[in-house]
Amino acid sequence: MRVEYIVVHTAADFRDEGRRDTSALEIRAWHTARGWNDIGYHYVVRRDGRVETGRPENQTGAHTRGLNHKSLGVCLSGHGDLQPMTEAQERALVRLLAQLCKKYKVPPERVIGHREVNRLVEAGVLEPIYRTAKTCPGKQISMTLVRVLTSRALKEG
Ligand SMILES: [Zn+2]
Question: Which residues contact 136 (CB under 8 A, 6 or more apart)?
Fold first, then answer.
């Protein structure tokens, strides 16, 4: 798989008003219950700042229709419509994104939130059938800020 994008998601876990520190194990259980063979994401970034691995990076994920074959999926624990990231989670996310951007030579502009696939549809990169109504990774998550921080982390090496 050629990684051209990194897509950020929320676990959309409603428990504890979106503060639940959802584990990769729990998400794997939800996804396998849907009949998938594994968790759909490559990484889960916990609210306490731990980073858990999901699907191996060299395997196609199941997280963003239209982009799975050319992206990695990173999921934030909790619920991004209800709670912003914790400071530890934001730091861990940015560190992970910078590492992945460097490894796969993905520019920070191609770190997108799931909801931003609509921009790719508007740009003609994706077919209109891939348009989404999702708010993922959540209304409390600014992808502009995530990109600024990732780009800064890359520059600082
Ligand atoms: Zn998503």
Answer: 9, 10, 12, 80, 113, 114, 115
